[in-house]
């Protein structure tokens, strides 16, 4: 497994709604992500900047293409578009982060 971290950005005033939607995440979306090779997925919020920090473990053979065209994933992106920064296809704007330290 490899670790993957990235940031995303919330729109102002959407903190509670973002948490609510993730507290109620669709079971079928969780299953899709898990089957694609995404595990131990956490998202943290910097309340001062509205920056979301996500970290997940990916199976060695994980490939983004396995989920990008999935209709449930696309539906989730559409659902989240009103509360976070998104690309033209409604996928979240993400900035990958380089790992500079890890301690087991």
Automatic annotation (TrEMBL):
The keyword Cytoplasm applies. Signal peptide: none annotated. Keywords: Carbohydrate metabolism, Cytoplasm, Isomerase, Rhamnose metabolism. It comes from the Bacteria. GO terms for molecular function: L-rhamnose mutarotase activity. SUPFAM superfamilies: Dimeric alpha+beta barrel. Its EC number is 5.1.3.32. It is an enzyme of class 5 (isomerase). Transmembrane segments: none annotated. NCBIfam families: YiiL_rotase (TIGR02625). This is L-rhamnose mutarotase. It comes from Fodinibius salicampi. The gene is rhaM.
């Amino acid at each position: 497994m490899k670790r993957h971290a990235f940031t995303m950005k919330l729109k102002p005033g959407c903190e509670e709604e973002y948490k609510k939607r993730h507290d109620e995440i669709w079971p079928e979306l969780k299953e899709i992500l898990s089957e694609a090779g995404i595990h131990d997925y956490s998202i943290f919020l910097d309340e001062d900047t509205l920056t979301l920090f996500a970290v997940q473990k990916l199976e060695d053979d994980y490939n983004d293409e396995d989920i990008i065209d999935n209709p449930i994933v696309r539906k989730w992106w559409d659902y989240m578009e009103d509360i976070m920064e998104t690309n033209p296809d409604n996928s979240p704007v993400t900035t990958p982060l380089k790992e500079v330290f890890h301690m087991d």
